[in-house]
Automatic annotation (TrEMBL):
It is a multi-pass membrane protein. It is found in: Cell membrane. This is Iron ABC transporter permease. Its main location: membrane. It comes from Anabaena lutea FACHB-196. It comes from the Bacteria. The keyword Transport applies. Coiled coil: none annotated. CDD domains: TM_ABC_iron-siderophores_like.
Length: 346
């Protein structure tokens, strides 16, 4: 039986969360902090956790190399991994709530493919474009893909399965056009696009952190504010309307948030799959189905998953580095098959 831990109400905001949520969030933050310190410290040039903390806090460690290795090479990529994981997890949670489908994920239903096509187009055709252009182009590509999927699904009697099928089909088409762009692109731009498509935070700098940060600042609070409406929509349109929800408006806002976060994530780190699928499932096991607690819990789980995936990709077969997108796919693909089997009769 769930017991409310905190209730906040005002004219614009209303939160009602399970008592497990704040405890779980604190626990996940501690685990993420440890994972990030380990990720920053591991590599060909190992650094102790104490020296990492000192360097981040601006305390002199007596080794001038620490500042460069940590603040220039390792910390930005770790921060990007955490931010991308958060965004993908929130996006996946919203898609699963909107479609009432546990198999929904921005990668599986084709949103990431639309973002990827737009981003690869920019990388190949406009290699000197400013860094902030990539998230904007990916957002436009993701938004167009989402609109097309929903339009086709609704015109054919929308259902959760139909939405998945439309997404898979359109994703294949977008992937084909992406391959076409790569085939006819200039060799240096193509190499950049191929590395990016594998899903990696390799070489990410503070420039990517600060270009991605506004997307989180704008859309994460929107997701948290709209979480109670997502609870209502998850019960079905008729029930949501009876509860006073403006169904179409709120669905559109939630879709905008999910697409924006997915598109910005793809633009920043490429195709990192299955994070938006796994995180909400783990979150429900920990804090239940109330999206007001599920969204922040899933966000931290997603950030943790990508940070750990980056750590494993860097260290398992060192000095060879495996993109974190490959690691998440190695875990996520079997989990997706498990969900398909478990939900085949639903």
């Amino acid at each position: 039986m769930k017991v409310d831990w905190l209730v906040i109400r005002s004219s614009a905001i209303s939160f009602r969360i399970d008592r497990r949520v704040p405890i779980m969030l604190l626990f996940l933050l501690a685990v993420i902090g440890v994972a990030m310190v380990i990720n920053v410290g591991r590599g060909e040039y190992p650094i102790s956790p104490l020296d990492i903390i000192k360097t981040i806090l601006g305390v002199n460690t007596g080794n001038p190399d620490h500042l460069f290795v940590i603040n220039t090479l390792r910390l930005p990529r770790t921060v990007v991994a955490f931010m991308v994981g958060m965004a993908l997890a929130i996006s996946g949670t919203i898609f699963q709530g909107l479609t009432r489908n546990p198999l929904a994920d921005p990668g599986i239903i084709g949103i990431n493919s639309g973002a990827s096509l737009a981003a690869v187009t920019v990388i190949v055709l406009f290699p000197s474009a400013p860094v902030y252009i990539l998230p904007l182009s990916a957002f436009v590509g993701a938004l167009l893909m989402a609109a097309l999927i929903y339009w086709l699904a609704w015109n054919n009697g929308s259902s959760p399965i139909l939405l998945i099928l439309m997404g898979v089909g359109l994703s294949a088409i977008a992937s084909a056009f992406t391959s076409l762009m790569i085939t006819f692109g200039e060799i240096n731009s193509v190499n950049d696009a191929l590395v990016w498509l594998a899903g990696s935070v390799y070489g990410r700098t503070w420039e990517q952190v600060f270009s991605f940060l506004p997307w989180l600042i704008i859309f994460v609070p929107m997701a948290l504010t709209l979480a109670r409406h997502l609870n209502a929509l998850n019960l079905g349109d008729d029930v949501a309307r009876s509860l006073g929800s403006r169904v179409e408006w709120q669905r559109s806002l939630l879709l905008l948030v999910a697409v924006a976060l997915a598109g910005a994530s793809v633009a920043t780190a490429g195709m990192i799959g299955f994070v938006g699928l796994i995180s909400p499932h783990l979150g429900r096991q920990l804090v239940g189905t109330n999206h007001q607690g599920l969204i922040p819990t899933s966000a931290l789980l997603g950030g943790m998953i990508v940070v750990v995936a980056d750590l494993l990709g860097r260290t398992l077969f060192a000095p060879i580095e495996i993109p974190c997108g490959v690691v998440t796919a190695a875990v996520g693909a079997p989990y997706f098959l498990y969900l398909l089997i478990r939900n085949r009769k639903k």
